[in-house]
Structures are given as structure tokens and as C-alpha cells.
Amino acid sequence: YLQPYWPDAVELAYTIYPRYRRCGYGYEATTGMLRWAAHTAHVGRFLLSIAAENAASRALAEKLGFVKAIEYHDEQLNLEYVYVLDGKAMAKRVGAYSGESSAPNL
């Protein structure tokens, strides 16, 4: 559904279960995935579609450098925001992929 707007982009999604929210896992996991995809798979652009009422995911997207690009209504007429991140800009911002994590062990 977003391909016509950004044919060169990869859409990603994530779920953080309540027990693990506000622990940094979402940021750490998403940063690692973005870094790997930009450096290793040479992905040029990333997309997130986030429910308008999901303030935590919107905040994470913005912390990661995503920018809100469009708004639309899904099949159930819920408002969604699409966030875009340029892979090249992200790669410069977060540095080289090392495969190392700073998240605590589970």
C-alpha cells in the first residue's frame, strides 16, 4: 500500500510487549536492524506506519530520526502516520555496524 509512494523503501514494524517497554529494547533493536540494513543490505529508505494514538512508537520513530511524511486512514478508518528515514542519513548518524549491543541481557 505504501510502495507507490516510496518504491525503494523497506517498511519495518515492531512490537514491544508491556513487560519490556521503557527499557530501551525498542530503540536498541531497531537501531541495530536499521544500521545493519543500511550498511550491509544497502537499504536506501525506511518506512514506519504508526497509529496516531501510539505516542510511544511515534516518540521512538522521532528519536531514531524518522520524519512524519503523510497521514492516512487504514481499512478500519483509524488514523495512521507514515514516517520516513533516509538510509544514507541514518548510516552517517549512527555510525558503522559493529554487531555489538548496549542493551542489557534478558
Explain what this protein looks like in three dimensions.
The protein has helices spanning 25-39, 55-63, 87-94, and strands spanning 10-11, 45-51, 67-73, 79-86. By secondary structure, it is an alpha+beta fold. A hairpin with a 5-residue loop joins strand 3 (67-73) and strand 4. Helix 1 crosses helix 3 (87-94). The longest helix has 15 residues, at 25-39. Residues 101-106 have low confidence and may be disordered.
Order of helices and strands: EHEHEEH
Describe the global form.
globular
DSSP summary, beta strand count: 4
CA-to-CA gap between the ends? 36 Å
Low-confidence stretches: 101-106
Helix proportion: 25-40%
Largest sheet: 4 strands, mixed
Percent of residues in beta strands?
15-25%
Mean model confidence by pLDDT: 83
Give the neighbour order of strands across the main sheet.
1-2-4-3
Give the helix tally. Answer: 3
Determine Rg (CA atoms, Å): 14 Å
Q: Which structural class should the secondary elements be placed in?
A: alpha+beta
Tags for this model:
single chain; about 110 residues; alpha+beta; 3 helices
In a few lines, what is going on in this structure?
The protein is α+β, with helices and mostly antiparallel strands and 106 residues long. The protein has helices spanning 25-39, 55-63, 87-94, and strands at 10-11, 45-51, 67-73, 79-86.
